[in-house]
From TrEMBL:
Alphabetic keyword roster: Membrane, Transmembrane, Transmembrane helix
Membrane-crossing residue ranges in chain numbering: 6-25, 37-56, 68-88, 100-119
Keyword Transmembrane helix belongs to the record: yes
Name of the protein this chain belongs to: Unannotated protein
Native source organism of the sequence: freshwater metagenome
Length: 120
């Protein structure tokens, strides 16, 4: 089961790269928009994150190191909000997407900080 967990962890990192990569690419643009890379990255992050927690808990990947459920809950809420901002931003006209772009990118960075300093 560890190999399945590792595969989903890699997919989770790919989603992160897509989300933050799409965000960073737009920083130089005169009109910042929520691009498809951000949408696909946010959805990948949300789904793979849920699968990772399920596998970790269900298969007892490391019984000596239980997950911090509070931190996982905070990360889930942030990931859900990022996904909502990305989806709402994609539905708006390009001239109105910048606030959604900024919120989604900023919260994605906050989620990375939570993962590094609180979960790990």
């Amino acid at each position: 089961m560890t190999i399945v967990y590792d595969i989903f962890l890699i997919l989770h990192f790919v989603g992160l790269a897509s989300l933050l990569g799409g965000f960073i690419v737009q920083m130089r643009a005169s009109q910042r928009v929520v691009n498809p890379a951000m949408l696909h990255g946010a959805l990948t992050q949300l789904v793979t994150g849920l699968v990772l927690v399920g596998i970790y808990e269900g298969a007892s990947i490391d019984p000596s190191s239980p997950l911090n459920q509070t931190a996982i809950g905070v990360k889930l809420v942030i990931a859900f909000i990022v996904t909502v901002f990305v989806m709402l931003g994609r539905r708006k006209e390009e001239s109105q997407q910048q606030p959604y772009w900024a919120a989604a990118g900023g919260l994605a960075l906050v989620n990375v900080i939570v993962a590094v300093f609180w979960v790990a």
